[in-house]
Amino acid sequence: MAELRWNPVLSEWVIVADERQDRPVLPEDSCPLCPGVLEVPEEDYYIVSFENRFPALRSEPDAPSLPGDDFYRTRGRRGVCEVLLYTPDHDLAPAELDLTRLQDLIRVWKDRLNELGSKDFIDYVYIFENRGEEIGVSLYHPHGQIYAFPFVPPVIEKELENARNHWKEEGDCLFCRVLEKEKGFQDRIVYENEGFTAFVPFYARFPYEVHLYPRRHIPDLSQLDGDEEAQFARALKTVLSKYSRLFPEDEGEFPYMMVFHGAPVDGGDYDYFHFHLEFYSLKRGAGKIKYRAGVETGAGTFISSISPEDMASRLREAPSELD
Fold it and tell me: How confident is the model over 79-95, as pLDDT tens digits?
């Protein structure tokens, strides 16, 4: 089975991709992302992007396995799934990347956003990273992923709807208002520089959730200038460094998801949107995992056992490699 299937109850697409069952999971003998192994045959590389060998979306998909109808709609899973390797060093955590490499990585993200977004069958380019076994990563090597969707994903749709309504009703940006509130309160801010502010939001759902906003109102990553790229790199490294030092008594890396929320690339007008990153974790304490169980998954209502103010305080106190 390989297709998109429409959920008429939630009005959203579900991707069916059976072949992803065959992807490798934490292989012990060799890493397919290391130089000269499988994905990159060269003996060395710097930063590399390539199409995923086990993609959820394909640029040339087969016809849907089931034809569907007006109610249970199906369509080909046309899109692009890429893997982005940050470094050839298998044991170097993303938090340990130097600022120069992080700035270069930001430029690669911008390049992939622009190239994938130019394809006429792509409506949304989603950049993300999963880190840690608790999150479900299948390979340790430092890497991220890019999904170029033929539709706008439902979480982004919800953000767009609320941002558009706020813009019409209040005459300003919803995200700029959030940033103004957080800067006014101060106690939930984790880090800030001239271009970016990192904070635990008032409404944090996940343990140690951090949002990273550019202070300038821009709809997507591609509009960052050179100075902002450098400030973005420093803010990104600071957040990841603090995560890595938050629970020093635990073995292994701090697990997190890093997701980019930018405007769609479908040709619409999204001046009301504000590009930002969101970081989520499932680690609520040393040796403790917050599982997304019945209430969060079945009802969509999150329960936080740590106050956002406490999360922010602990993250501020955690040392950073740039301190």
Answer: 999 999 999 999 999 99
Catalytic entry in 143, 211, 261, 276: 143
Domain coverage including residue 99? 2-317
pTM, full prediction: 0.95
143 noted as active-site residue: yes
Q: What does the DSSP assignment read for 136-178? A: T-S--SSEEEEEEESS--HHHHHHHHHHHHHHHHHSS-HHHHH
| DSSP per-residue string spanning 252-281 | SPPPEEEEEE---SSS---TT---EEEEE-
- Does some domain include residue 311? yes
Please tell me the distance from the alpha carbon of residue 143 to that of residue 27, in angstroms, as a whole number.
16
Q: Is 116 helix (H, G, I), strand (E, B) or coil?
A: helix
List the end-to-end C-alpha distance of the chain, in Å, as a whole number: 51
Among 82, 53, 68, residue whose Cα is nearest residue 1? 68
What is the CATH classification number for the domain harbouring 124? 3.30.428.10
pLDDT above 80: residue 186: yes
Beta bridge partners of 277: 212, 260
Whole-angstrom distance, CA of residue 258 vs CA of residue 269: 26
User: Do residues 234 and 309 lie in contact, with contact meaning Cβ atoms separated by under 8 Å?
Assistant: no
